[in-house]
Amino acid sequence: MARIRLLGVKKDFGGVAALRGIDLDVAHGELLAILGPSGCGKSTTMQLLAGFLPPDAGEIWADDRLISSPQSVVPPERRRMSLVFQSYAVWPHMTVFENISFGLEMRKLSGKEIAGRVGQMLEIVNLTGFEHRYPHELSGGQQQRVALARALVVEPETLLLDEPLSNLDANLREQMRFEIRRIHERTRIATIYVTHDQAEAMVIADRIAVMNKGVIEQTGKPAEIYEQPCSRFVASFMGGANCLPAHVLGPGVVRCGDVQVRAADPREFRPGDEVVLCIRPHAVRVHRIRNGPPRGENLANGRLLQQAYLGDFHDLRIALSGGAQIRALTPAGPAYDGGEEVIVELPPNACRLLRT
Amino acid sequence: MPDNVSRIDRRAFLKLSAGALGAAALGPGALQAAEADEEKKLYEAAKKEGKVVWWTSHYQLSAAEAVRDAFKAKYPGVDVEFIRQTAQVIFQRLNQNLKAGVKELDVFASTDESHYLKLKGQGVLAAHKPLGVNHLPKQFQNIDPDNTYHLGALAFVVINHHSSVSPVPQKWTDLHDPKWQGQITLGHPGFSGYVGNWVVAMWDKYGWDYFTALAKNKPKIGRSIFDTVTDIVGGERKVGAGPENQSLESKAKGNPIDIKFPADDAVLVISPVGILKDAPHPNAGRLFESFFYSKEYSQAIAKTFNYPLRSDVPAPTGVAIEKLKYYRNKADRLDKGIPEAIEKWRETFGV
Amino acid sequence: MAESVGSAGGAPALPSAVRKLDPSAAVFGAAALILIFLVVVPLAWIFVASVHSDADETLTLSNYVRAFSRSIYLEPIRNSLVLATAAAVLATFFGTVLSWAVSRTDMPGRGLIRVMVFAAFATPSFLGATAWIFLAAPNSGWLNKIWIAISGAERGPFNIYSLTGAILVIALYSFPYTFAFASSALELVPSDMERSAALLGARWPRITWRITLPLVRPAILAGALLSFLEAIAEFGTPAFLLIPAGKQVITTQLYLFFQYPSRPNLAAAYAVPLLLVTASLFLLQQRLLKKGRFTSIGGKGGVREPFRLGGWRWPLLAVCLVPTVCSLVLPYTALLLTSLSRAWGRGPVPGNLTTQWYRWALVENAAARAAIGHSLSYAAAAATIATVLALFTAYVAQRRLVPGSRLLAFVAMAPFVVPGIILAIGFFSAYARPPLVLYGTAWMLIVAFATRFLPIAYSGTESALRGIDVELENAARTLGSSTLRTFWRITLPLLRRSIVATWLAAFIPSLRELSSAVFLFTPSTAVITNVIFDLSDAGNFEPVSALGVLMMALTFGLIALAYRLFGRTVLFSRGRG
């Protein structure tokens, strides 16, 4: 049985639909990331999960308990979920120790037990020795760790993390990602992690749910989502993709501009359909004419519009003869000439056909 | 509590009358002995009550303080909590309290005689003949045949003027002279009982035209009769209708103020005193009211230039009250007259 | 599906209306009910009383007919409107100029001016009126005498017993409100806006007139409306200055309606239209303030460079000193000198000096001593009640804990529009009769003060609450803390400084309150303002001055103590904390 389950959850704000029917499962011990751009509804989902808002339709279940429905909502203090906020929400008038022990006070533990658990948690988040500091004496990263410790010490059944790293600078963010993953593996609490950063989701999550405009477009393991995006949005959100309009000629064969392209996975499209051909920039192969005619399928003529030298590779923008533009990342090598004529190869295995 | 009060009330009354009758049968010496006995009993009971609450508009603040000090000196152990405010204000407060059932006042001392007609009509005054009331001058002894109130003070409204003024106005009508424009100060009948008495007197003597003419001189309108004294002493105005007591007191301190008994009559202010039926300290109240007729009281108020109530204490000006020419309003005239006067005053003077 | 399913180990869900409160509902609900009771009951009584006749309590509209058909009752309305409008305009002018000078320029003495403005706020205007009588009575006023001595004229130019005099005095003691409004708005204006204008070549006069002031216009107007409301509700100053001038205003007329034979129902009818006017003005003010928030965006304001005024600094200081000197220096000097005189008419000359009045006030006059004690204790009790109620109900309203929370906010602010004397009438009608008789007890005044100053406490608390991130509270709730516990452990400690400032903001006006106290007190519950008012006729200027000086010394002493303990927030400035 899933730890957390959302069934057809909808939420409106004054006529604007924030969530338009969300279905989601989180298994025990799993870390699920909800990934999406700002305004897609992920924060609203968090608010509903935590019990601060009621859904307008649908249900939320925790194990076999119905905890949210349009008629009734179990209040936050009884859902056994902890929430870590983007702003840390660490209480400025309490020490680190007091912040962390707050949740334990209500569980009627003895002073000794509380001190013990707090000490343990501080050790897990690497803040031993900071018990008597006040938040304003801590850095952003340290405050976030206090927030995490505070959330974990009460041994919640579910942990909710709402863009917890957005306020940190880039280096710290990368570091903290691994910390969070490590802590999760140690505590194995079902966790829902909201972020807009695709790289972060990929590092941290067991599974990712990609969200856009109030619906979940795709759920799956990071590799699945990256390699087999099921929609244009998911494809371009997860790491950038070239998406070229194309016309289906036959199973797996499309006309893209003035080039005929075969895609390895035909999916269910029928001739005459208008589709989108997606290929990752790093999968596009660029052949220089001076090296002679290339071998391979799906070849097209192109002209170099722009190039950027990035050390490990070139970032090229190429205009195809049919008019479309394509972006390619090619391995390090001699520089290209501006306006050079090239031949672009789109390997069939890297081509994905998606609905428009 | 209320039952208790009326019981003591009646008992004391009967006792007193019986005692008085009995003593009358035995002669004046016996009467005095009976009174002293009553006084002692009253004092003992008052000490148990601890204090008396007294609201007065009879005289200026210094006189009220002198009365308090004299009473406390004679009857140690009984405190005096008093307020000195203008007559209409204390009357309004009393009525407000009565309406709400708040019982905090023992002795009510107003300068508007008609207040007592109204209060008696409401049945809130206690009938009681205080000790020593027979020391009063005969013409003031029985202002209420039912003994619900008795005389507490006597005062006059006279012409007040700055000592630099010459010639001094001789009559009330002299105040109409245009030379006094912007130089007159008055109280307000809506606040002061003294002024109420004076206004009704002038109205009855000269008709309301007296005031429409006076208004042309743009007098400064205050609240209390004693505002007149302040204005003249301070040099704010030169003449006015003012009291006698505080003006003479001020003059004695060296201030540039003086009074004139007008040829067309000073106005007498009869200031009764009465005890409330539901007084929280009934015995202290009776003791205090009786104190009014003692020598110490008359001496105290005479020191502050008020007329003594006893003939065996000399008047502060040296002229006994019986020798003075004055105008006295009837109580039932004041009853209707003052409220009407307040209305007309508003129309004439704007406030 | 209306089922709320429980299961082993889970608690059943509550119906949605109370889902957020659990047992906290009782506490918050109780606070809301008390608030509604305090505010609605007296106001309802006013309306009820106005349609019953005074003579026999029958239902009638005759009170309204009488109140508005006689010219002697209409005159005061005209006078009040003139008085309040002129005072508001003047107060706005002073408040705006001073707040601009203090917040946006490098004028010298800014800190001093700020302190003086606060001192003017703490001074009751009727005390100022009394002092101005000493200074500017047409024949005996000291300023007039000095003028005559210097210029040899026959008469001095000042006559405080006039509408002009009353307007000036009221403006002098209500400009701190406009100052506060304008100040806080000016401090929020992002300086980038002014810098852009400067870069385009504008100098400070143009920038101020075309950029800064228009940006804070809503706040200035809101402050002006507040001054108007204060001025129209004034009782003490018109009683002292306008009665001698032969002019009545609405508040003094209401007082007259209570003279024997008292006509409280007629008074209520007379008061109702004024209530409607003040209510609509208040709604207008609130709307202006809401608009204001969108225009001055940057909540933090940013670092601001004050304007360098060059040679204009000193003339500006002179202008700023005019209202402060006139509201503080001159009056307090007059009060002090009078309180030390044997007879004020003789002036402050040797031979006329004495400390007897202070002895009288503190030692001999038991009533005055008791009144001082009453003032302090009632004001403290009222401020505490108002603060506690404000805290709970502002929390309920802001966090929308019950449906209809906005209505609660409205009720909390309602007493603001009710002039003190009218509120007193309502209280008297409500609580001077069974079943709940508070009249005659200390609670009458305490409840009246608490209700009268609840809006101040409420708006202070509301804006403080807005500054607290709701996530801090949500974090606690997810850890298992109930609404009430979260309020107690998280919200309140974070509000500590504001709570003190709010308490003071209710305490100080309670200390100097006259217009509602003048009806509701009985001699055994009198406060210091009652005693001063009572003494002020019959020419007792010297004891009145001594009592006034004592009262203000007490007030300023307490403020200084608060400043010591709690810092700059008490002085209207944003400061630290």
Structure description:
The complex is a heterotrimer of chains A (356), B (351) and C (577). Chain A contains eight helices and 20 strands. In chain A, the strands form four sheets. Chain A has a six-stranded mixed sheet with strand order 6-7-8-3-9-10, with helices on both faces. A five-stranded antiparallel sheet of chain A has the order 13-12-11-14-20. In chain A, strands 15-19-16-17-18 form a five-stranded antiparallel sheet, with no helix packed on it. The radius of gyration of chain B is 21 Å and the shape is globular. In chain B, strands 1, 2, 3, 4, 5, 6, 7, 8, 9 and 10 form a ten-stranded mixed sheet that branches. The longest helix of chain B is centred in the N-terminal third of the chain and has 25 residues. The N terminus of chain B is likely disordered. Chain C has a domain of 268 residues: MetI-like (MetI-like fold), CATH 1.10.3720.10. Chain C starts with 23 loop residues before the first helix and ends in an 11-residue tail after the last helix. The longest helix of chain C is centred in the N-terminal third of the chain and has 34 residues. The chains are: A alpha+beta (356), B alpha/beta (351), C mainly alpha (577). Chains in contact: A-C, B-C. At the B-C interface, β2, α4, β6, α8 and α12 of B face loops of C.
